[in-house]
Amino acid sequence: MKEQREVIFKDSVFLQEVDGETILLDGDTEEYFSLNETAGYIYKTLQSESDLEKAIKILGDYFEISSLQIESDVLNFVEILGEKGLLEIN
């Protein structure tokens, strides 16, 4: 059985949608990040479902791609956001 991994979002990150893009503002660093429509959907899914494995399943069903591909894409996305200090995995 896999250990549950939970996505924890930084409280100081604010989200705004503008013309199909998701804009993230890190209130601590005042740094902006622009996500395309797909990345924005992934981000919002992770916000609504913090259990990483469940979120990956939801996203795989939505995008209709293989579980290995969506898991790789989501983990890469989460790693990048983690490196930017926007979230962490517990």
What is the topology?
Layout: E1 7-9, E2 13-18, E3 21-26, E4 31-35, H1 37-48, H2 52-63, H3 67-83, E5 87-89
Antiparallel strand pairs: 1-5, 2-3, 3-4
Helix pairs in contact: 1-2, 2-3
Describe the structure.
It is built from three helices and five strands. By secondary structure, it is of the alpha+beta class. The protein has a single domain, classed as Arc Repressor Mutant, subunit A (Orthogonal Bundle). The chain has a three-stranded antiparallel β-sheet. A two-stranded antiparallel ribbon has the order 1-5.
**Mean residue pLDDT:** 92
Biggest sheet layout: 3 strands, antiparallel
Gross geometry: globular
Strand order of the largest sheet: 2-3-4
The CATH architecture would be: Orthogonal Bundle
Q: What is the terminal separation in angstroms?
A: 17 Å
Task: Specify the number of helices.
Answer: 3
Number of domains: 1
Helix content: 40-55%
The low-pLDDT segments are none
The fraction of residues in strands falls at: 25-35%
Count the strands?
5
Structural class: alpha+beta
Structural features:
90 residues, alpha+beta, Arc Repressor Mutant, subunit A, three-stranded antiparallel β-sheet, 26% strand, globular
